[in-house]
Design a protein that fits this description.
- It is a single chain.
- It is built from nine helices and 15 strands.
- By secondary structure, it is α+β, with helices and mostly antiparallel strands.
- The chain has three domains: 5-57; 62-176, Uridine Diphospho-n-acetylenolpyruvylglucosamine Reductase, domain 3 (2-Layer Sandwich), CATH 3.30.465.10; 183-289, CO dehydrogenase flavoprotein, C-terminal domain (Enolase-like, domain 1, 2-Layer Sandwich), CATH 3.30.390.
- The longest helix is centred in the C-terminal third of the chain and has 21 residues, at 269-289.
- The protein is globular, with a radius of gyration of 20 Å.
- The chain starts with a strand and ends with a helix.
């Protein structure tokens, strides 16, 4: 039996609930267990199917919870809940992430769901991913043999696929610190306000000079590709423009041509592209109107 772990059996299914990170890493070392944290995606994905795989529940690892600001980075523990992020006193550049946190499911989901779970589930419609892309976030992956840090864009390798290895746990999301008074926004389109899967999401971070000239911008779109994408051409075209310009007139269909939306029960691919442009324009208008 693992030290610091609660081990139970339900039929042929092992359930482990380690109380510290070392025990958790020992439990995942053989790569055979499914990891569960907030479980807001875990159970819905198994409706109508019995649980057959061994499970390790890491929700009790308090050492992986919380937000720490250092001189160089903001470290968000893997098990930090969305309600914690929503209420956190963070610099302005995190406004988009905090807005996304308030849009994830309802209050019950926000109180249970974790930032690492959102990333590991790797849904194209994961609300947390676009704002983290605009923050240049990286993912810290830990195993018994060491740690590695992977840029978020590289961590997400495809539809519900990640670079997480079977013997690893996500232990933190790391955001580099820089100009923290940048404008930051998150726009989401769904069929209703809460408890809805996104049709389109747009996250924006814009840095401007004292004279209002755009120095840098990052714009990411979710639910329009297997993995959320940055609109790099639009970001380039915005550089050098002023906040007083009619920025909302700039985005064109060729700026979103690299996306790959699908037709599904929520929207057609064509509608998603039109909606993306509308949300980008709305976000740019908010930037122009911001103090």
């Amino acid at each position: 039996m693992l030290a610091g772990a609660d081990v139970r059996k339900n039929g042929s299914v092992d359930y482990l609930a380690p109380s510290d990170l070392d025990s958790a890493l020992t439990a995942v070392a053989d790569g055979t267990r499914t990891v569960m944290a907030g479980a807001t995606d875990f159970y819905p994905a198994r409706v109508g199917r019995p649980l057959t795989e061994p499970v390790i529940d890491i929700s009790g690892l308090d050492e992986l919870r919380g937000i720490t600001m250092t001189e160089d980075s903001c470290r968000i523990g893997a098990l930090t809940r969305w309600s914690d992020i929503r209420k956190a006193d963070l610099p302005r550049v995190f406004d988009g992430l905090r807005l996304a946190a308030s849009e994830i499911g309802g209050i019950q989901v926000q109180n249970a769901g974790t930032i690492a779970g959102n990333l590991c589930n790797a849904s194209p419609a994961a609300d947390g991913i676009p704002p983290l892309l605009t923050l240049d976030a990286s993912v810290e992956l830990t195993s018994q043999v060491g740690r590695r840090v992977v840029p978020l864009q590289a961590f997400l390798t495809g539809y519900r696929q990640t670079d997480l290895r079977p013997h690893e746990l996500v232990t933190a999301v790391i955001v580099p610190r820089g100009v923290e008074e940048r404008f930051s926004d998150f726009q989401k389109l769904g069929s209703r306000s809460y408890l809805v899967i996104s049709i389109v999401m747009v996250a924006t971070v814009i840095e401007s000079s004292a004279h209002g000239t755009i120095v840098d911008s990052r714009i990411a779109v979710g639910a329009c590709s297997p993995v959320a994408q940055r609109l790099t051409q639009l970001e380039s075209d915005l550089r050098g423009l002023k906040s007083s310009d009619r920025l909302e007139d700039l985005p064109r269909m060729d700026h979103v041509s690299g996306l790959a939306p699908i037709d599904d029960v929520r929207a057609t691919a064509a509608y998603r592209l039109d909606a993306t442009l509308a949300l980008v324009r709305r976000s740019l208008r908010l930037f122009s109107e911001s103090p």
